[in-house]
Specification:
The protein is an alpha+beta fold and about 450 residues long. The protein is about 25% helix and about 30% strand. A hairpin with a 5-residue loop joins strand 17 and strand 18. The longest helix has 24 residues. The termini are far apart. About 40% of the residues are buried. This is Oxysterol-binding protein. Pfam families: Oxysterol_BP. It comes from Brassica carinata.
């Protein structure tokens, strides 16, 4: 590791003075709402202010007073717990999208992976690939919760910029999803098992998972370990998201890697969104510095062995956020709207597809009451299906992904790895040849239709 690693503030490197100034400010200022009976110890964080306006910030947010009180009474017993799937939450905090669809948002800037596959420069390969990994964080800052997928639920995206994508909910307890995407330049494979820690007015989200990208030209395999995400002001104040810490992408084939540090939000928003770091060779010598903001753009510049910019070089932009809709209710990008639409759906859409969920669609249409009722109905159906399996001594088997014997360690716990089994490619080839032109909007959501059972 270079002595001027941006996270330690040491040395005389390019980011040393920046890291020093940010560390002197500390993290975003918090204030307890101890003045309110029944809410002792909860912290409010104003990312744009200091301790002086935290009390004022506490009275902002999307919750009505009566809803906020009811939510707190329900949730306070879970402080310190993983609430990923153990709590039934009101649809008022949801967006009309599922976690399976949210996985697909990584494909918006997939052209960066195409460029990583095409370049001859091994270090620029890491610049392109890591910028692709950063590009999704603008979407991840949305403050609405996606729906938890039903066991066996899927999401398909067909030929978006040459990319085909499939994801499936492979486990309910613990909730786990698997995804696969592919085009002529790369394959993407992910197993995700989110883990959370509820802290009262905030929640930590730990990305327990394994993300692998294989670049087809040279067979290079890239491994990604992202930072955790913190969601602040769940009950009091305006909800906002931060992802402080390291993102590490490693070339498992050559040993090269990228270490990028997501700065924590400081006083009056100082450091918020900022990302700094380096591309290292297999000997951990810095080769290229990277800097930018995960909600705007990323740039790079060649550097020397001390991490200083090389004379005669300049910062060059490698990724820039696409224009987003203004005043969008759910802070959606144009790509997020495409994910929800049937324009990106393949022919003969699977009846288990997230687009078809009646609760998701009702929320998209603005009918919150119907969405809540549909959500409750599906959750009860899922419990009934589980009871039936248990009575028959059966277990659920995913359709498009297989469990492997591999258990991989992550910074937040071990992960059982699922792999794409290829059956979807056979299904899709047959579907594309079919003369069935059924309007996908007319298909009834049924994640149980293709469920395999084993004893």
């Amino acid at each position: 590791m270079a002595p001027n690693d941006p996270k330690n503030g040491g040395g005389s490197g390019f980011f040393a003075s920046l890291a020093s100034s940010i560390s002197s400010l500390g993290s975003a200022m918090t204030k307890s709402v101890n003045g309110l009976v029944g809410y002792e110890g909860l912290e409010v964080i104003n990312p744009e202010g200091s301790t002086e306006d935290a009390a004022e910030e506490a009275n902002r947010g999307r919750w009505k007073q009566e809803d906020r009180d009811g939510y707190w009474k329900m949730m306070q017993k879970y402080i310190g717990s993983d609430v990923t799937s153990m709590v039934t939450l009101p649809v008022i905090i949801f967006e009309p999208m599922t976690m399976l669809q949210k996985m697909a948002e990584l494909m918006e800037y997939s052209h960066l992976l195409d460029m990583a596959d095409q370049t001859e420069d091994p270090y620029m390969r890491m610049v392109y690939a890591s910028s692709w990994a950063i590009s999704v964080y603008f979407a991840f800052q949305r403050t609405w919760k996606p729906f938890n997928p039903i066991l066996g639920e899927t999401y398909e995206m067909a030929n978006y910029n040459g990319v085909n994508f499939i994801s499936e909910q492979v486990s309910h307890h613990p909730p786990m999803s698997a995804g696969h995407a592919e085009n002529e330049h790369f394959t993407y494979d992910c197993t995700s098992k989110l883990k959370t820690k509820f802290l009262g007015n905030s929640i930590d989200v730990y990305p327990v998972g394994r993300t692998r990208v294989t670049l087809k030209r040279d067979g290079v395999v890239l491994d990604l370990v992202p930072p955790l995400t913190k969601v602040h002001n769940l009950i009091f104040g305006r909800t906002w998201v931060d992802s402080p810490g390291e993102m590490i992408m490693t070339n498992l084939t050559t040993g090269d890697k990228v270490v990028l540090y997501f700065q924590p939000c400081g006083w009056f928003g100082s450091g918020r969104y900022e990302v700094d770091g380096y591309v290292y060779n297999a000997s951990e010598e810095p080769k290229i510095l990277m800097t930018g903001k995960w909600n705007e753009s990323m740039s790079y510049q060649q550097c020397d062995g001390e991490g200083e910019p090389l004379p005669g070089t300049e910062l060059k932009e490698v990724w820039k956020l696409a224009d987003a809709p203004k005043d969008d209710k759910y802070q959606y990008t144009h790509f997020a709207h495409k994910i929800n639409s049937f324009d990106t759906a393949p022919k003969k859409l699977l009846p288990s597809d997230s687009r078809l969920r009646p609760d998701r669609y009702a929320l998209e249409m603005g009918d919150m009451s119907k969405s809540g009722n549909e959500k409750s109905s599906m959750e009860e159906r899922q419990r009934a299906e589980k009871r039936t399996r248990e009575e028959k001594g059966q277990s659920f088997t995913p359709k498009w992904f297989d469990i492997t014997e591999e258990v991989t360690p992550t910074p937040w716990g071990d992960l059982e790895v699922y792999q794409f089994n290829g059956k979807y490619l056979e299904h899709r080839e047959a579907a594309d040849k079919s003369e069935d032109n059924t309007d996908p909007k007319s298909i009834t959501f049924n994640p149980w239709q293709f469920q395999d059972m084993s004893t």
